[in-house]
Design goal:
Blueprint lengths: L1 H18 L14 H10 L5 H8 L3 H9 L3 H12 L7 H10 L9 H17 L3 H17 L4 H5 L2 H13 L3 H14 L10 E6 L6 H15 L10 E5 L1 H10 L5 H16 L3 H11 L5 H12 L16 E8 L6 E6 L12 E3 L4 H8 L9 E3 L2 E5 L1 H4 L3 H11 L5 E7 L19 H12 L3 H10 L5 E4 L14 H17 L1 H11 L5 H15 L8
Parallel strand pairs: 1-2, 1-8, 2-3, 4-5, 8-9
Antiparallel strand pairs: 3-4, 3-7, 6-7
Helix pairs in contact: 7-8, 7-10, 8-11, 10-11, 12-14, 12-22, 12-23, 16-17
Organism: Ascaris suum
GO molecular function: calcium-independent phospholipase A2 activity
Pfam families: Patatin
Length: about 550
């Protein structure tokens, strides 16, 4: 009770001070309490003229020094108010509440959302100029991303599909084509595969060991004798460091040689850090390396304003998937950042989205525990996708089946970033292991890539599935930047290429397989039907 009374007394004194005109305030008035006023009320005397004259002739410097000199009561008042918060929130508290409070989204009824979608569809059909087409396509794309269920309205409108595909094939404006491709992608429209069937590229995680995977990809591109590697795949999937490679090849259209240069530059810039700062960061934020610096590097290399969906604007762009791991759910589960949306009625088993920035997807996919901080995007907390699916081949196959359910799988190339030869014999007999060893082995088993490989090897035909994963002569770490060890990585990968030349040539041959005459005629007829408005989201 005494504490409550003391807090109230202090608040009343402060409020009284603020109500007093500035000219009548003395420094001591700031800290006068209500109890002091009560005691002085009966014995108070009018100030004498002499006292007034003293106050009037006081020099400005004296007043200034008096005002700036803290009194004991002022100090005590500050301590008291800091210990017991006021019932009335302060201005700073109000500002803080506004900062942390969630943005209240306005909810629309189902009929309002449906009417809005129908209106946007009709406006796009009536659009004439290039600027109008672009504006309507962008508005419709944004609406479909926010309300995916309304896509059915556009898909079932024959005139709309006919108009949209007509714009795509008849206009020469590349910006208009890009906006239309984005709109079609959000609607769930999927182009026919480029070859005889669906061709998939899956790239594992592994930190700077991604240099080994790039060497394998370079050998595969050389075996194609001309075409760029990214142009040969319908779907590219990557996790962690594999996601970075997938984006550099599939979205940024960089050569493999340029990807190697960027890899070395990023590794040296990011992992060149002192042990003291690393340990302090690990203790304070569970991040050995500077996450802000990593975010800045990604924005610089990938682009700050480019979204996942922007990577589907160019003709022939592959479907792109970046895999992360959701860690704030009851169970760990993968999250797939996509540059596409599945057709209505054929939703993926895994959560995902296309609205995030490209650099955000990479940061989330490569947020290795202990190395970088977790990434919060909306209500989902992301961590390195390799925690759950370091070999994303199975996820890639599932996504491809949802996109092209009636097309056969032509070729699956799964690229690893190095592994050790497992010895089955035990070196010494142990009745128990240390807890650190237990944890390490649990993590190793969770991030094992070869178990997925064995399943894919047994399920897919031998001339369809190709696993290219070089052996490591040394246990390279995820943050390796030693030039000698990086050079040794490349030597290990080149040795693997020499020993597996026949497998790489077979993979290139499978990629180059062209559709048969029957397939070509069938696809051409379905394309003509789509242009006339008879679109069915199934192949």
């Amino acid at each position: 009770m005494k504490k409550v009374m003391l807090a109230r007394v202090t608040r009343l004194a402060v409020l009284r001070f603020w109500k007093t005109p500035i000219s009548d305030v003395t420094p001591s008035a700031v800290v006068l309490s209500e109890s002091t006023d009560r005691r002085a009320g009966s014995n108070a005397e009018e100030p004498s003229p002499s006292s007034k004259s003293v106050e009037q002739i006081a020099s400005p410097s004296d007043a200034k020094s008096e005002a700036t000199t803290p009194s004991y009561l002022g100090y005590l008042s500050g301590v008291v108010t800091s210990l017991w918060k006021s019932e009335q929130p302060t201005e700073d508290e109000e500002v803080q509440k506004k900062r942390v409070s969630r943005v209240v989204m306005k909810h629309f009824s189902r009929s309002e959302v449906t009417n809005r979608a129908q209106s946007l569809v009709n406006k796009l059909i009536m659009a004439q100029s290039s600027d109008s087409i672009r504006l309507r396509a962008q508005e419709l794309c944004k609406h479909f991303v926010e309300y995916p269920a309304t896509r059915v309205i556009a898909v079932q409108n024959k005139r709309f599909m006919k108009t949209l595909l007509s714009f795509l094939h008849n206009t020469s404006d590349e910006e208009v084509k890009g906006d239309i491709r984005q709109c079609l992608s959000v609607m769930g429209y999927v182009d026919f595969p480029k070859g005889a069937g669906v061709r998939i590229l899956s790239i594992d995680g592994g930190g700077t060991r991604g240099m080994m995977g790039l060497e394998i990809l370079q050998a595969l591109e050389d075996a194609l004798h001309g075409p760029k590697l990214a142009e040969m795949f319908d779907h590219i999937v990557g996790v962690s460091t594999g996601a970075i490679i997938a984006v550099l090849l599939g979205a940024k259209e960089l050569s493999i040689e340029r990807c190697k240069e960027i890899y070395v530059e990023i590794s040296r810039e990011l992992f060149n850090q002192g042990r003291i700062s690393g340990v302090s960061g690990l203790l304070l934020s569970h991040s050995y390396y500077n996450t802000k610096k990593w975010r800045k590097i990604l924005k610089k290399r990938i682009g700050e304003e480019e979204t996942m969906l922007d990577s589907c604007r160019r003709k022939g762009a592959p479907k792109l998937s970046v895999v992360s791991c959701i860690v704030n759910a009851p169970m760990l589960q993968p999250y797939i950042f996509r540059n596409y949306v599945h057709p209505p009625g054929r939703e993926s088993h895994f959560k995902g989205g296309c609205e995030h920035m490209l650099w955000q997807a990479l940061q989330a996919s490569a947020a290795a525990p202990g190395y970088f901080e977790e990434v919060a995007l909306g209500s989902i907390l992301h961590q390195d996708g390799g925690v759950l699916a370091n070999n994303p081949t199975a996820l890639a196959l599932h996504e491809a089946r949802m996109l092209w359910p009636n097309e056969r799988i032509q070729c699956v190339v799964s690229v690893g970033n190095g592994h050790h030869v497992n010895e089955l014999e035990t070196t010494n007999v142990k009745l128990s292991t240390r807890i650190q060893e237990k944890i390490t082995r649990i993590v190793d088993s969770a991030t094992d890539t070869e178990l997925v490989h064995l399943c894919m090897h047994d399920l897919l035909p031998a001339n369809t599935y190709f696993r290219l994963n070089p052996y490591m002569s040394f246990p390279y770490t995820l943050d390796e930047i030693d030039p000698k060890k990086l050079a040794q990585m490349e030597n290990d990968a080149r040795l693997y290429v020499r020993r597996n030349r026949a497998k790489i040539e077979a993979a290139a041959e499978a990629l180059l397989l062209q559709p048969s005459i029957t397939q070509t005629i069938s696809r051409r007829l379905r394309e003509l039907a789509q242009r006339s408005g008879l679109y069915v989201p199934s192949f």
